[in-house]
Amino acid sequence: MMLKTYAVSTSAAMKRLNKVFLKKGQKVHKIRDKRAQDVLGKYCIKDIMTGDIISFSSQLTDWLKEEWLLGYEEFVTDENTNMDGYQQCTGQ
């Protein structure tokens, strides 16, 4: 039996995270400045009230896993670490 895998777009992944984080007074943002992305990563979590940055990451997968929002058969598109796993599972 072949393992089925499902792609989750980065937009859908951010929506999943924001649904949970907004209840905590936080929000996931994509960092737009390319120079800042090189140093900090592509995404950050900000406090809504203060605007303080809580965390940085170059991918959404770790945050999704921490919040139990990503199934074992799912991967986030445009994140190289997950595509490697996808290729191993499907042989593509």
Summarize the structure.
Helix content is 39%, strand content 23%.
Report what the structure shows.
The C terminus is likely disordered. This protein is globular. It contains four helices and five strands. The longest helix is centred in the N-terminal third of the chain and has 12 residues. The protein is of the alpha+beta class and 92 residues long. It has a three-stranded antiparallel beta sheet with strand order 2-3-4. It has a two-stranded parallel sheet with strand order 1-5. Strand 3 and strand 4 form a beta hairpin. The protein has one domain.
State the share of residues found in helices, binned by percent.
25-40%
Structural class: alpha+beta
What's the tally of helices?
Answer: 4
Main sheet attributes: strand count, strand direction, barrel closure: 3 strands, antiparallel
Rounded mean pLDDT score: 84
β-strand number: 5
Structure keywords:
4 helices; 92 residues; alpha+beta; 3-stranded antiparallel β-sheet; single chain
Describe the secondary-structure layout:
Elements: E1 6-8, H1 10-21, E2 26-30, H2 34-40, E3 43-47, E4 53-57, H3 61-66, E5 74-76, H4 80-90
Parallel strand pairs: 1-5
Antiparallel strand pairs: 2-3, 3-4
